[in-house]
Amino acid sequence: MARISYQLYCSRNFPPLSQTLKMLSDAGFAEVEGFGGLFDDLDGLHAGLETNGLRMTSSHMGLDLVEGDPAKAIAIAQKLGIEKVFVPFIGSEERPTNTAGWLAFGERLAEAGKPLQDAGLAFGWHNHEFEFAATESGDMPLDLIAEAASTLSLELDLGWVRIAGHDPAAWITKYASRLSAVHIKDIAKEGECTDEDGWADVGHGIMDWPAIHAALQEAGIDHYVLEHDNPSDDARFAQRSFASVQKF
User: Fold this and answer.
1) pTM of the predicted model, to two decimals?
2) How far apart are CA 130 and CA 119, in angstroms?
3) How many CB atoms sit inside 10 A of residue 112's CB?
4) Strand 153-157 to strand 55-60: parallel, antiparallel, or no bridges (unpaired)?
């Protein structure tokens, strides 16, 4: 049975956090994934998780934090019980433009992650769609990152893989040994959910979940993190998506 987590970024527009945590607990979640905007009040976050019987087993952390103050990143993880840390994004102005640049970026990630790995944390990269835009040599940036950083784990965002025009199941199989979690996201049919940037509740869009779930099971991946980048109703998304994943 998969571990079903919830990326708290989904609820960033639905304060207060205490209400979100209760909603998730009531919906049946036991795990959540954090993001950088939550770490200003660690004591309050820790108390809210405990009150609602939730564990923050993974989190996104910006490269500026991981690279610039690894001791702080480790302290946050230890305070909250985080086991896996993923760098989720770099802005367009920071992105390499060629194969050599992406290989260098992979090496940079590997170096940045060493202190966290030495502290017993899993450390990895979370993709968007730009890692699937081929370089001048025809290489995929995600492949280059993985090649240059052999110790790096991956949190494959299946929605962005599909948005980029690729088969999520194929990429799950390709990187089965490197995946420590996946983002479970769905995409609305064309013309639907335009007020939600075209994303859908899990199980209510176009993603081929039987094939994806089979690939995940074959790969031995059991950490499913549900995400919707812009839900108009986070409780609806959480409840319907949790129910869908339970039926996979």
Assistant:
1) 0.96
2) 30
3) 21
4) unpaired
> Which residue, 164, 152, 165, 170, is CA-closest to 103?
152
Number of H helices, E strands in the chain: 10, 10
d(CA 37, CA 55): 17
pLDDT in tens, 227-244: 999 999 999 999 999 999
- Quote the tokens at residue 217: 């099971």
Q: Which residues of 45-79 are buried (b: 16+ CB within 10 A; e: fewer)?
A: beebbeebebbbbbbbbbbebbbeebeebbebbee
Looking at the chain, list the stretches that DSSP marks H as alpha helix, in order from N- to C-terminal side. Answer: 17-27, 42-51, 63-68, 70-80, 99-118, 141-148, 158-163, 168-174, 209-219, 234-246
C-alpha distance from residue 168 to each of 5, 70, 158, 181 (Å)? 19, 32, 6, 14
Within 10 A of 103 (CB to CB), how many other CB atoms are there? 19
For the chain, what are the domain ranges? 3-246
Q: Which two tokens stand for residue 205?
A: 């869009």
> Which CATH architecture fits 3-246?
Alpha-Beta Barrel (3.20)
